[in-house]
Amino acid sequence: MASDEFRLVSPDINHEGRLPRKYTGEGQGAKKNISPPLEWVFRKGFSGKEEELSGDYAGIKEGNNDWKIPGWRGPKLPNHGHRFQFKLYALDEEVNLGNRVTKERLLEAIQGHVLGEAVLTAIF
Question: What is the average per-residue pLDDT within 90-112?
Fold first, then answer.
């Protein structure tokens, strides 16, 4: 897939790539560790919710993060200026990895099934 056909964007990450505090571990109160809105599949505030998903969201699954729990947990870094990436893969078949998905297991399982990849780089 050409990169202009398969893009991952976020309306809340500005043209300089800055990620607002509410999407990090440095936000305040209820306005921290919120999953950022990513336009292609995810919706704002989706991550970490144990709600019943239906329709377009029924097939979404989240892997474990660095804290070994599923869902989004915003970065909490020693200083600002770090870059990190959101990645979205288009696959030719559904991958079933169970409940305890890790990055390594996912990358191994999708090997040979990736039709396209979109990357969004943000700066914290």
Answer: 86
Amino acid at 53: L
Contacts 24+ apart (CB under 8 A), 20-26: 23/74, 24/74, 24/75, 24/76, 24/124, 25/73, 25/74, 25/75, 25/76, 26/74, 26/76
How many whole angstroms separate alpha carbon 63 and alpha carbon 50? 14
Q: Given phi > 0 = left and psi -120 to 50 = alpha, else beta, which region is 33?
A: left
pTM of the predicted structure, to 2 decimals: 0.67
- Per residue in 3-34, pLDDT (tens digit) is 445 688 898 988 788 888 888 888 888 888 88
Which residues are paired to 47 by β-bridges? none
